[in-house]
Each structure stands twice: as C-alpha cells, then as structure tokens.
Amino acid sequence: MRADQILHPTDAGLYCPPGDFFIDPVRPVERALITHAHGDHARSGHGSVMATRETLEIMAIRYGEDFTATRQVADGEITVGDTRVSFHPAGHILGSAQIAITPTAGPKIVVSGDYCRRANPVCAPYEPVPCDIFVTEATFGLPVFKHPDPASEMARLLKSMAEFPDRHHLIGAYALGKAQRLIMLAREAGIEGPIAIHGALQRLCDYHIEQGIDLGELIPATAKDVPAQLVIAPPSAFASAWVQRFRDPVIGFASGWMQVRARARQRGVELPLVVSDHVDWPQVTQTIRELAPSEVWITHGTEDGLMRWCELHQIPARPLRLVGYEDEPE
Q1: Which residues partner with 21 through β-bridges?
Q2: Domain count of the chain?
Q3: Is 325 inside any structural domain?
Q4: CA 232 to CA 77: how far, in whole Å?
Q5: Are 61 and 203 in contact (CB under 8 A)?
Q6: Which residues, 6+ apart, have CB-to-CB distance to 226 below 8 Å?
C-alpha cells in the first residue's frame, strides 16, 4: 500500500482510508484522532474522538455540553480498521501526543502534531518514534528561529521585576499550556510568592493542579490593587477594559514570535519573552536527522524553508498545504 493510500490531506484534514479516521480535523467528522487540546486541533462536533486521557478531559472542560462525542482513551496500540495506532508524548502541552499509524501493509507514518524538544515542566517530554514517514509542523521553519533557553528569558523577567518593583508585570500567555508553563518556569527561577492570574486561566490552571502539577500560590487578578507583581493573562485581555485596573504596568508577552522584534513593537510589548512550545529550526532539523525517515511531510508553518533544507540533504519531502491551523496562538 502506498503512503498516500494510508494518509492524505483533504478539506477536513488528514484522512486515513484504511482506518477510516481523520487526524485533527478542522470540521466535524465521524471519527477523529486528536493530537492535543488546542482549539485549532481539537474541535467539537465529531461523532467519536480518540485521544489521551488529558486531552479528552481538557476538551470536556473547554467545550462543556458541546463535547458530545463518544470518547476513547488512547492507551497502548489500538486496532482501528486495517491499521494499528499508538499515541506518544509530543512535549507540547499537557496530554499532547504524536500519532503513529502502522497499516497491515505499507510504510509506518508518525503524525507529530505540534511538538517541542525542550524540557517542559507541565507535560511529558517528546519521545522520538522511528518511522518511514514523518509528518512535521514547520511553525518556526526558518534558520533565523533559534529560541533561547527559557531560563534566560525568566532571568530577564526577574531582572525587570527587580528594576521596577512598583510596577505590575502583565505577561500575555496562551490559556492552555503556555500560561501553566510560564508559571512553572517562574517558580523554577525563584518566584515563591503569589502569582496573579486572569479569570480565563483559572479552570485550566486548576486542572493542571489536579494532575499533580504544583503551580504554587495563585490568586485572582480581580482586586483593584492586585497583591502580586507578576500577573499572567490571555492575550485577548490586553485589548479589554481589564488591563486598565493596572497603573503603568510593564507589558510582556511569552511566545516564540517575540524573537521577531517588529511583532513585539506592533503589539506594544515592553518585555518580549521568547518562550515557545514548538520546535525551532535547530530542533526540527535535528529531529529529522535523528529519525532518518525515508520521507518528510510538512503540515503547516514555513513549509518552503524546510522543503529546501530537505532537498539540500537529499531527503524526499512534500508540503501538505493544510489550512485551519495557527502557527502559534497569540
């Protein structure tokens, strides 16, 4: 069986005919396998959903009564139609997974979803999975993207907090994954007191705590004079009246895109923190070298840059031109 008979792109997302399922479909389908719970990969409306336990539970939190799908926890190797599938840690957010597809005949395909090679204190580390075809993102798929050690970015945050002790530091971070990781990085950097969080982060932070991830003392960022210097909020909060309760705050943002200073200036970010939950250029190319697949498929991001790198290294590659996925939520 040819690779494109096992998995190919459609308007709804990646489809596996021998298993009759879609991976991270962008519209409702009968059977969906989900890599992780970010909204651009995990949508509601499917007939049935297979994912890790954490991903299913986070989807239930986020979608509530709209999450009516039949749910199956991915545990071990599972037979789906004429394929066997297994889920492996992706290192992206809590519950994130790569999906390995092994057909009865034909090449083994690993769909990595979004993945990260740096240590992440809120989720299991990325696990290399040998395969014939590796399906990778290319969010930061250009040589310019070489993300610094997150510890050095936390040192910059602490330096700013020490330099401006009377100013709240408002840091924008995506509600699922990035916010909790930022809290843990701040704890590892030595911040022991309370950290204030926007109400939109509360339930997801509570869930991480329920899973044994110690985020330390968190307080709501609702009081007129919030008694915590560090405040974390989703990016949308910075365009609302909520931000006006803080007098002369230091505005920060945590994202891999903060390496692009023009983006930071455009958003009025005084303290850009380059903290990403995706592979950067050295990590994505390292991963391809390490796995040594016979072919690389690229799902989204800067496809042309990675295509050219594969060509120069004589690795067959193809862009899948999938739409509906954000490069990195801001």
Answers
A1: 16
A2: 2
A3: no
A4: 39
A5: yes
A6: 168, 196, 219, 245, 246
72/14 same-domain check = yes
Pairing of strands 109-111, 97-103: antiparallel
Residue 170 DSSP SS3: strand
Which range has the worst mean pLDDT, 143-147, 244-248, 276-280, 310-314?
244-248
Task: Write down the H helix ranges in 115-243.
Answer: 150-163, 178-188, 202-210
On the CB side of 158, CA atoms within 13 Å amount to 17
In a domain, 326, yes or no: no
136 and 15 in a common domain: yes
pLDDT in tens, 45-56: 999 999 999 999
Q: What pLDDT does 266 receive?
A: 82
State how far the Cα of 92 lies from the Cα of 136, in Å rounded to an integer.
13
Task: Name the pairing type of β-strands 13-16 and 8-10.
Answer: antiparallel
Q: Shortest CA distance to 123 belongs to which of 18, 277, 240, 246?
A: 277
- Which residue has 């290399």 as its token pair? 128
Give the predicted TM-score (pTM) of the model: 0.95
CB contact at 8 A, 302 and 162: no
Segments forming the whole domain that contains residue 82: 3-144+278-319
What is the widest separation between alpha-carbon atoms in the chain?
65
Amino acid present at 315? I
